[in-house]
Amino acid sequence: MLAAAIGQCVAVLVVLTLAPLLKGVIARLEAVVQSRRGPSPFQPYFDLAKLFGKQRSATPEASWVFRFTPYIVFAAPIAFAMLIPVLTAFPLSWAFMADMVGSGFVIGIGGFFTNLAAMDSASPYGGLGASRSRLVSSLAEPTLILIFFAVGYISGGTVPFVVNDVLHNASPLITPSHALIAAAFLMVLLAETGRLPIDNPGTAQELSMIEASRLFEFSGPDQALMEWGGWMKLFVLLVVWLNVLIWPDGLATQITLPAFAIAIGTLAAKMLGAAVLIAGIESALSKIRILRVPEYLGGTFVLSFLSIVLFSLGR
Amino acid sequence: MDLAAAVFSTLILLVGFWLLIARQIRAAVDGYAIQSILLGCLALALFAATRDPDLLALGILTIAIKGLAIPAVIERQAKTTYGKRELQYHVGFPTALLIGAGLTLIGFVAAARLPYHPALLAEPVLGVAIAVTLLGFFTAMARRDAVLQLAGLLVAENGVILVGLVVASGLGLLIEFAVFLDVLVGVAVMGFLIARMHETVSSTDTSELSRLRG
Fold this sequence. Notes:
The complex is a heterodimer of chains A (315) and B (214). Chain A is mostly helical and 315 residues long.
């Protein structure tokens, strides 16, 4: 019991500490692609340290929602990390608190409160960003639900640990329906975490930004928590994509120091691969117009739909 | 073999969807070329499994004629509009995607109901074949640009070839050769007509043709 608790803590700590590094590595890789030297991969840690040392300020009109949102945004990915196989192939004590649908709610509550806070501060950009992000999320929702259906259908369960186990023993690992669902999930993941081609994380250009406008009114430690929470959201969703959907190997099978060290190393290597992939996607694609977002997300819907059709006929 | 067939047929289906929503005429023609090459690869994969020389010829002919020659002909004939975007269409893209998904479902259900016993390829490939045929016809209906309509018809023809591949592992070399030449000639003629149409009404939008001009 104690060992399981320690394992859980280590998994959460890994998410906490590696998420800023992932953001830094992606930024560095993109700079390299653009023939720039770019900031150090550790720059996000310095940013966090700087922001935590600053004063917090909020408009007097803002209500309790605005003050509580940073903590919720920060806590949601941590709670999510307890539900998914970050380091271990076997379920830890909290693993059966929620299945994929439930963990989708957990990760969604952060976005919900971010939108409320953005409206709450009465900044015009906040309302703009909130309504745009609702557009993206509401269109991503049908695809996400279909992905949950498809994953449940393919693996016979929706608890992330069970899916991981089923795919770990599956042969061949990559079937067409499986590849389609992985592609659809990656596309939705990019849309939900505010990456290209939906939103440009590198700039805060007023006319087109989605994510940045929701964070405008936060300052000091609040801003640090919001940004850290956003990086962790990207990190844990990528963990789901990597460890549950496409590459279920390399996880620890028991709670020992060497097994965890290997699992952390494997996860870091997988994350590096994902960072290269995301940097490649973001360097190759430009941001699409907001009115074309429905086409992008309609494409993900068709991919997940075809996955279900192909799977139901393939067996 | 089964895995290769599944991968190639899935990609063929995905390219069919890509053609349904391609904005640029160049992208649609490129998509058709890729789909034809995938179809040829599928035939070659079947050849590797069965050693049937007809399939080898079919694969090479498909790649050479439909993957390379026909896109080149379209590019030459429709040079004036080749790099353009289509701005008007009959069915919007999200709707077209949903209808396409429905057509795919119809294709798979139809394939499951046909009195056909899979010998060489598994049943889902027949579903893909029917779905690609339907998607091609729907593309021809949903778009207003003549080049994109032509691409849709060509996709439908790819689907028919795939049906032949699944049901009879090729329709026989002589018939297929005749079909290939017919398609090539057809594309050349349609490309010529598209070029003439562009000269006359300075657009390849077919809805322009419903008005009489004096």
